Amino acid sequence: MQHEKEILKWLDGTITDSELEELRNTPEFKDLEPIIRNTSNFKKPSFNTEENLEAFHKLKEKQTKKVVPINSWKKYVAIAASLVLIVSMYFIFSYTGTTVHTKLAETTNFNLPDNSEVALNSDSEIEYSKKTWDTKRELKLQGEAFFKVSKGKTFDVITDQGTVTVVGTQFNVQERDNFFQVRCFEGKVKVSVYGTTVFLTPGKGIKLVDGELNEMETFDASIPDWLNNESNFDNVPFNVVVKEFERQFNIKVNYDKALANKKFTGGFSYANSADAIESIAFPMNLKVNIKDKSTIELYE
Predict the structure, then answer these.
(1) Does the pTM of the predicted model rise above 0.70?
(2) Are 164 and 147 in contact (CB under 8 A)?
C-alpha cells in the first residue's frame, strides 16, 4: 500500500497540513476514512513511525482480507448456484423417465424403444428411460403386464417384490400389494425374489403370497387370462380376487374383512359385472347386494 508513512504520521501527530491535504485525495484515505473519522476524538497515541510502519502494514493487510472474502463469497455463491442449476437440469433431462399408466377398467398396448411389445392391465404403471434404453433395457412395474421382448441385451422388469430378467421371451408379471406372480409363455425367465432365484420355462410359473414363495405351478395357456378378458385364481387370498374385480369394473366391493385371507379358487369374466360378482360370491357361499352402479355388498 502507498502512503503508509503519511498515515502513520497522521496517527503520530507529526503530519503537515500539505501532507494531510494530499493524503485526503488518495484511495487509501477513502478506505480508511471511517476509521479516521471514528478515531478523531480519541487522544493521540504515542507512535514511533518507523517501528510501527510494518505493524500498520500488517493491520491493513488484515483489513483487506476481511473485505475481499465478502466479495469472493458473493462470487462463489453465484457460481455454486449456477452449478447446482446446471447439475439439476442435467439430471432432469437425462433421467426423467417415460411413464405409461392405466386407470381402473382400462388397459393399453404400446411398444418400447426396441419394439418390445407391452400389454398393460388396468390400474397399472410402467416407467422406463428412452435415453438409456439402448444400453440398459430396464423398467419398473406396478400392477400387471404381459411382455413380448425383442431379442437383444438383458431385459429387466423391476417390481417392489421381485425382479424378472430375460433376453427375448414372452411372459406375464402381476404385482399387486402382497401378491406377486410370474408366468412364462415363451423362452426362459429368471425371477429373483427375496434372495431366491427361480428359472421358468414355457408353461411354468411362480407366485409369492404375503411374502411366501409357493411351489412352481404349471399352466396351459397361450396368452395370459386377462388378455382373454377373464381372471382365474388358484388358492389365493380372497382380497386379491376382490381387488382384481374392482380394477376391472371400477366398482367398490364391501365385505366382511374376516374373509380377506380365506383362500379362493375360481375365476370371473369381464363381460358383465353382475355375472362376475356372482362367480366370486358362489364359491365363498356369499350373497350379493348390488346397491348401485358403483357399490356392491357381499355378505354371508
Answers:
(1) no
(2) no
